[in-house]
Design goal:
Order of helices and strands: HHHHHHHHH
Number of domains: 2
Structural class: mainly alpha
Low-confidence stretches: none
Number of helices: 9
Number of strands: 0
């Protein structure tokens, strides 16, 4: 193995990703060129194209990195039924989203979807839905509707927050999400 080249290659990828996210703070993704990214990163076009086929490929790689990072944050080993654990988990994920808010906002301006959050909610569904619905006597169809409703609401709150440049405090967004979840669960218990 050519370790120095591997390290240099990894470093180039980091520089390219960082340059792209810096450029997104001031520009729409559609206004950014490979040349802009290379100039900001201090690499040449050949280096860029040795790692990514196009800007969309770079974008997808950064999105995948965020997905993996946020997924790890949302899969704690602690007991999620403890509200403090749930709150801290949500805060940590929101802070990660806020750190890349320019990327998220650019993405949302070009599509209505938060693809990786959709995938993320599906991946954690099996772990958390039994805890949230514990003690409920719901049919599988009712459980599915509950999940769809919660997922849409949470993603909607995050989408709105990102489009407003994450101005609202992370903790207040986390409190809103938990409050709404409790209200929905309360309605399930008493209906």
């Amino acid at each position: 193995m050519n370790t120095p080249n591997n390290a240099r290659s990894a470093q180039s990828k980091i520089k390219i990703k960082k340059a792209f996210t810096v450029l997104l703070e001031a520009h729409n993704v559609s206004d950014i060129t490979v040349g802009d990214i290379c100039k900001e990163a201090g690499v040449n076009r050949t280096t860029f194209y040795s790692h990514y086929s196009c800007i969309a490929d770079l974008y997808k790689a950064i999105e995948e990195d965020m997905y993996v990072s946020i997924k790890e944050m949302l899969l704690p080993t602690d007991d999620i039924s403890d509200e403090r654990v749930a709150f801290n988990m949500i805060v940590t994920a929101l802070e990660a989203i806020k750190a890349h808010r320019h990327l998220h906002r650019n993405h949302l301006e070009h599509t209505l979807e938060f693809d990786y959050l959709d995938e993320l909610t599906e991946s954690i569904r099996a772990r958390y839905m039994p805890l949230i619905l514990q003690g409920q006597n719901l049919s599988p169809e009712q459980e599915e509707h509950f999940f769809i409703f919660c997922k849409s609401g949470i993603i909607g709150i995050i989408r709105d927050w990102v489009m407003k440049d994450c101005v609202a405090d992370v903790q207040s967004i986390a409190h809103s999400i938990l409050f709404i979840m409790h209200q929905i669960r309360f309605k399930l218990i008493y209906n």
